[in-house]
Amino acid sequence: MKKREQIILSPEEIPYYWYNVKADLPFQLDPILHPGTNQPARPEELKPIFPDGLIEQEFTLQREIPIPEEIRNEYAIYRPTPLVHATGLEEYLETPAKIYFKNESQNPSGSHKVNTALAQAFFNMKEGIEKLVTETGAGQWGSALSYAGKKFHLAVEVYMVRVSYLLKPARQQMMHLFGAEVYPSPSERTEHGRAILEKDPNCNGSLGMAITDAVEVAVKSQNTKYALGSVLDHVLLHQTIIGQEVKKQLKMMNIKPDILIACVGGGSNFGGFVLPFIPDRLKDPQLEIVASEPEACPSLMKGEYRYDFGDTGHLTPLLKMCTLGSDFLPPPIHAGGLRYHGASPIVSRLVTEKLVRPDDLTQEEILQAAQIFSLTEGIIPAPESAHAIASAIKEAKKCKENRESKTIVFNLSGHGLLDLASYDHISKINGKGL
Ligand SMILES: *Cc1c(COP(=O)(O)O)cnc(C)c1O
């Protein structure tokens, strides 16, 4: 096997600011709309759900937003994260392509989500908020926010999509370990949830429903705000520390990427990974940027680009995005984190501007990619991240056919150690995979 290479930065290289791509885009994004008036939402209209610090970040056009020292110190527990030369995967594929991955799986919650969870908990704490309410799909966001809440002395209440609540007890246990309360959604605890359960007592739930449950609880409680783990501009903003580190790491090695790949659920790990490269992409159309999503929930490839609600109960502001419709119920595919009807407005616009190309993947492709990656690189990937791996494998195979030595860099958004039951389930349906 070829020599392993990990490109590791020192703690001083953790970025000092979050990068706001809106300062550099050659077009203006459509504003978010107030659900009652259908007019552009004013910052103060978001106050019932978000703290001022985050609302400001949602609207600002300032390029660099300084990261408070308290948050940087928390990042230092698990950052900077390594960029790994995937020599095992390259050899297995016998490809002339060079493949690198950014490893966001080695942290307390096992995914990139803790990057924004810490930032959101901090800004809420600073404004005297005592409790955060949120939704979670597969459980990664819930566990990240539970951890971050504890760090900044906030109580956390999580509404978990019922099908995941039943299938992923380990994620619930992790949230309990971090001190959070967890309830299945649709929930008996909300008006919205009770109305759904009355019609369909065994409803699997969806992210859209869990968001409505969480927003309803947050709006009705004192000193409590809501937190969203993806989609919104401020969430992508916090994640840009990923791409900034990758840029430094590539530069240190004198490597120019040809293809950047990340998976998209709501778009936060994708945005965090690629947005710092958008100025490069605007100068160099050769730089390919690929967004991997499940064929079963293809918001970027098949969704309509229009205003839609972020939730099923229509409590959230309207966002202009690629959407399958806020009442879309995705099949219970096992990449729970990718079962969302919409996608980040920034990522959606980059797709419609053809700066980003979507790639849809089947469950067989995902399982196979996960098995290959586990055996060649020694990390069991999250099913979500396996989408990015599957796209990277596709590109590496193209390079082999065309005898091209491109450099492919993808984001490993999380590990799959708590998703083994899902993998087992897919293997049983699809046979052995490898
Ligand atoms: C939540 C999650 C995703 C999908 O969310 P994005 O906001 O699109 O990044 C992807 N990978 C992992 C590991 C996740 O936990």
List keywords for this structure.
434 residues, alpha/beta, Rossmann fold, 7-stranded mixed β-sheet, 4-stranded parallel β-sheet, 17 helices, binds pyridoxal-5'-phosphate
Summarize the structure in words:
With 434 residues, the protein is of the alpha/beta class. It has a domain of 249 residues: Rossmann fold, CATH 3.40.50. It is built from 17 helices and 15 strands. The strands form 4 sheets. The chain has a 7-stranded mixed beta sheet, with helices on both faces. It has a 4-stranded parallel beta sheet with strand order 8-7-6-9, with helices on both faces. A two-stranded antiparallel sheet has the order 2-3. β12 and β13 form a beta hairpin. α10 packs across α11. The two termini are 20 Å apart. The site of pyridoxal-5'-phosphate has 20 residues, from α5, α11 and α16.
